[in-house]
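Standup notes
- HV: blocked on the assembly model, inputs below
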Amino acid sequence: QKEVEQDPGPLSVPEGAIVSLNCTYSNSAFQYFMWYRQYSRKGPELLMYTYSSGNKEDGRFTAQVDKSSKYISLFIRDSQPSDSATYLCAMSLIKAAGNKLTFGGGTRVLVKP
Amino acid sequence: DTEVTQTPKHLVMGMTNKKSLKCEQHMGHRAMYWYKQKAKKPPELMFVYSYEKLSINESVPSRFSPECPNSSLLNLHLHALQPEDSALYLCASSQVGTRFDEQYFGPGTRLTVT
């Protein structure tokens, strides 16, 4: 069993729809939860991070963490074709120096005009 | 400036060649990372440097040799690679010691081993 599971997709939605992404994890010691966006042949770009359980909103993006269920989600409202990319969830433990990220496998999202 | 730069963008090398990948950041970050990413897979951590000292080596084969000559530069020296080492090599950097150390990724070097 992988530490972090993520549906690979592809997830195809029409422009303007809500994109719903999620990851499950097995290590209850994870404290920080991140979502990265990666366009083809580019490096990942951090979209949002959350600490512990709860919701966090930033513009069109909402991240949710449910530590009791070991489940995290990312919602993208009013999706645009430019949101077409691979979305990677990532998690980390609290560390004093350096920070190892454990990634999910990524979900490919396609927003159709 | 929140940019991590990597050179070269593309590299083709034979199995007997020696080459180096270079990464640079000027954000004052004291942790730097090398990741390997195969197609349609997530990045896999290879090495972490913290304050220019190697702090994590994820059991990477010795044909990959990292070097951190100063706080802004990170190199990855390559020697006697195998075709299965072909991948996108990503560099990242972050602060150290804060509660959350956001990692900023570079665009990567696409390596092909022939």
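- HV (later): unblocked. Chain B touches chain A through 31 residues (CB under 8 Å). The two ends of chain B are 36 Å apart (CA to CA).
- Next: hand off to the docking folks.
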